[in-house]
From TrEMBL:
Keyword Nuclease: no
Gene3D superfamilies (UniProt xref): Spore Coat Polysaccharide Biosynthesis Protein SpsA, Chain A (3.90.550.10), Tetratricopeptide repeat domain (1.25.40.10)
Swiss-Prot/TrEMBL keywords: TPR repeat
InterPro entries linked: Fis1_TPR_C, Glyco_trans_2-like, Nucleotide-diphossugar_trans, TPR-like_helical_dom_sf, TPR_rpt
Keyword rRNA processing: no
Glycosyltransferase 2-like domain boundaries: 7-104
Name under which the protein is recorded: Fis1 C-terminal tetratricopeptide repeat-containing protein
Any one Pfam family match given in the protein's UniProt record, by short name: Fis1_TPR_C
TPR repeat spans: 310-343
Amino acid sequence: MVTISLSMIVKNEENNIRRCLNSIRGIVDEIIIVDTGSTDNTKEICALYTDKIYDFEWIDDFSAARNYSYRLAAKDYILWLDADDFLLPEDRVKLKKLKETLNPQINTVMMNYNTGLDFQGNVIFSYYRERLTKRECNFKWNEPVHEYLLTEGPFLETDICITHGKIPGETSSDRNLKIYEKKLSNLEFLSPRGTYYYARELKDHDNFLEASRQFELFLDTDLGWLEDNISACSELAKCYLKLNQDKRALACLFRSFIYCAPRAEICCQIGYYYQEKMDYETAAFWFQFILSLKKPKQCWGFLQHDCWSYIPLIESAVCYDRMGDYNKALKYNTRALKIKPDSLQAKQNQTYLQNKVALNRKNKTKGVP
């Protein structure tokens, strides 16, 4: 059986850290906490779980802090978590089993990162991350912000999930944006990946014009990861819509088809585009087209799961309702309701559409045109 070090970097996480460490306790063989400047009770809480707590002077570089935490690890494999990550009970069981059965020839274990849940706890947004790596490989973290671990195979892709849950009421920070701006003011070079994430930060802070320029710059390098290229097309389209450049937005969405077969997330955006233009027939085409697509099985990029089933069904219902075809609308809404029986929108739609269909039948019986 292999041994595992948990290596974490934290700062002011007193609201999150206990849940995280409770969820992993009893599975890992050591817990390493690298604190980057907490002023709350984070370190005191961590001391209840481990005596391996270290200070690291923050230098606006997440990779530097993570690499320091990895150098402190002493076990066969290193696992990383953020303070607002945790394992659900079923994933604790899976990770324990993996620890007992992992082939030591594996260098990197990929795990699903569930970052979005609906009110019923269903996963609606996820992607894969490198989570467990062999220590002797000495893999390094890269990029000061939105860092990633540069690894190599042999890989093992598992169904173990790490769940991400932010504390309600937390607000978006401009920390990452400031790090990028500081680098640029110092005339430092941004990698293609850095340019992509800088553009995302700009968009998230409503600087749509500069964000669009950075997304275009990123795509023009033709050096991005395929999944980032697709995501950049999606995000760039959102920027152009905010800038009232509708045709450029639509062109960006179709541009994503260069990189791979159409993705449901992109096709939903196209459907919404035509829906906004009140071209319900074209919108319905795109929402129904999604239903013919197969969700990627070997995809380490972002997946918005509702875009592959629930959303195209319920939006098809909306489109046919607008076109006055209530029978078709009811058919699609019924399918959406089967996928999400607790959906308030689908329930309300179902009652409304059933009444519409019944009224049409009644009118036809009476000969009303």
